[in-house]
User: What shape does this take?
Amino acid sequence: MFTVIKNDHNGRETWRYTGDVIARAADHVLLEARFNRDTHDAGYVVYKRGDRFIEWFYTDRWYNVFRIHDVDDGRLKGWYCNITRPAVISDHSVMADDLALDVFVTPTRDLLLLDEDEFAALELDADEHAHALNAVESIRDLATRRVEAFADTILTQL
Assistant: This one.
């Protein structure tokens, strides 16, 4: 088992869960995990206990990406992207500091920017703020081009 540790922007742990490593390299780890909370209707998607998450964490990017599949029928629900400081990956865990701003990408590649007010309220320096906004644009670019985590053929590769 591989442990995922989500911290707030101050480095305090807010959530911990486990997953299985699919692949890893010097700059990233790819995991499979199951949603371990009760069903939650977020308004843009319904998260259900047991939904399959394919998760990318990067040591050189200011975000992570979760490809979400429905527990009941395997249907792609979309991608949830946390804007974070670059992840710290060890032999048995990954840790990232969440910067509140999130992006949800629908299966048709429409982007929803989430939690902008929470992000604006954080006391980040100008460099971190710029990295976070650049991360949103990187996600938009990858999703539009349907590459990497947003590729249509990703499941045939896993």
